[in-house]
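cron nightly-structures :: item 1 of 1
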Amino acid sequence: GAVRQLINSPDFLAGARDHDSTALVHPAKLVWELSRVCSELGVEFYEHTHAVEMNNAGTQVQVLTADGQITAKHVALATNVFPSLLKRHRSRIVPVYDYALMTEPLTAQQRAAIGWENMVGLADLNNRFHYARPTIDAEGNFRILYGGYDAVYHFGGKVRSSYDTNQQTFEKLAAHFFGSFPDLSQVKFSHAWGGAIDTCSRFFSFFDLAYGGKVAYCAGFTGLGVGATRFGARVMLDLLSGQKTELTELELVRTKPIPFPPEPAAWVGVNLMTSQLVKADRNRGERSAFLKLMDKIGMGFDS
């Protein structure tokens, strides 16, 4: 009953609300403000600069780009889903595609019907979960962002702009949305998009040092990077300092995820994992022998 008072949906039988350790973040506004502050501090940005190679240059590191080169005492590699300049980590990351919808502005009656008065985010606890976020657009209209569930891996781990659109997933998400919010059955979606996220086998970030401590690396956030990037940056700065700190001694910083196997084993494994997660969701969360084995060896949600 308390959940229905907060967000009126027949799907949610119980819930937990975290007042203290969570917050809603607008990713674009966060980046724009960070960019503004960094620029005022003298940081220079070179967007759309494709780094293709990295070499040792004595006490420095040389990064080659398509248009020139950069030489620096320290390099922080935060290349997300794109192939790492540290080749030893390329097998630790696979790209999976996540998709989201944005509703058209809700009328006052529609918003009242679902009771979503507070600006709180929403996520279910399925293995293949959905996430929903309220947002106020530039005109002051209330909309709902709704995404998740599908995590599409393409054979060979390719990253292509053509994969950013997936009509089948968009239709699936819309059906799930209307199932969760039947009072919004007349609402249409104004935007639909997708993108690749960097997934590693343990489903959370990992770190490394290279080139004699001159290069720090961070990746593998598995879709949870916006909230964790400040933490990741602090870890890389500590690693580059060469000093032992509370952050550098964390187990997740000192250890690495298990690499993904080469194709076709990677494609088979990812799809088998996905099917088993769906099966668990439909069986009240009961994990199969395969999922328990993956957890035990360090691959999977509960690893």
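cron nightly-structures :: done
The chain has three domains: 2-27+94-199, 46-93+201-254, 265-297.
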